[in-house]
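Reviewer 2 asked us to include a model.

Predict the structure of this chain.
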Amino acid sequence: MDPLSDVLSILRPRSYMFRGLDARAPWSIAYPPTDGFGCYAVVSGACWLVVEGEPEAIRLATGDCVLLTRDKPFRMASDLALSPVDAVALFGAVREGSVVTLNGGGADSGVGGYFDFGGKDAGLLRDLLPPIVHIRDESDKAALRSAMELMMRELREPQPGGFLVARHLAQLMLVLAIRLHLTRVGGVGAGWLSALMDRQLAAAISAMHENPAQAWTLQMLARTASMSRSSFAQRFKEKVGLSPMEYLTRWRMLLAGEKLRSSGESIAAIGYSLGYESESAFGAAFRRLMGCSPRQYARGRRR
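Predicted model (structure tokens):
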């Protein structure tokens, strides 16, 4: 698989929460921060998005999709001057997968919710993505439109198996939003996604993903990228925000978390499969990044 598929396959959302909204102006809704990622799409109409800490409000038009990767409160509204209603109270009154109607509906509609990756897993992916991924280019929106419209239909007109269909469509929208953003940035700017569009850096990242147990050195990775050691280290740090060896450690820990969750392998065997010569060395690296021992992590995920 490619590096993006690698990461998203390992960081399968632990839980989902999604609903639809059918509103007519004026309306304003305040959302609390969550541990996961928010993914929201405008099916018809338009609205404003304000995220705490961001300098400007974002105008969302029909077909726009936005992915929020930071656990900060935000607000969606037809008019930013309005006092908002609480999203927990509004959406909590109906079952998951339902459509909430405001002011009779019929003007502004959308679907959205959040994906909970759980604990440090979400933090590791969050560090690799920008705070807001806004899909608004017409060609990009066309790729998302069918998924959005089908999901809204599933929510409005429940059919047998509709809840499962809507859940998979929500995850599809998440993956499409990230992939479309990756294509759009085209290597411009900082971040792990833009690094994947850099042919030389992508070669090194792919090598780390394909063989995480390799005793990689900075020189080996630079050679894989067909760059000098100093140029590679500088460009990788500028693009990804991490040194190559820091990135390698994070990738190894994501793989370790997946193995601890789903395999019956011993901790020593998992560590060895990821390039650590002893259980103590693996445990120290895991604890440093994940905040707990591999054994504690495995017990917590099983619970």
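The CA atoms of residues 26 and 283 lie 54 Å apart. The longest strand covers residues 15-23. We have added this to the supplementary material.
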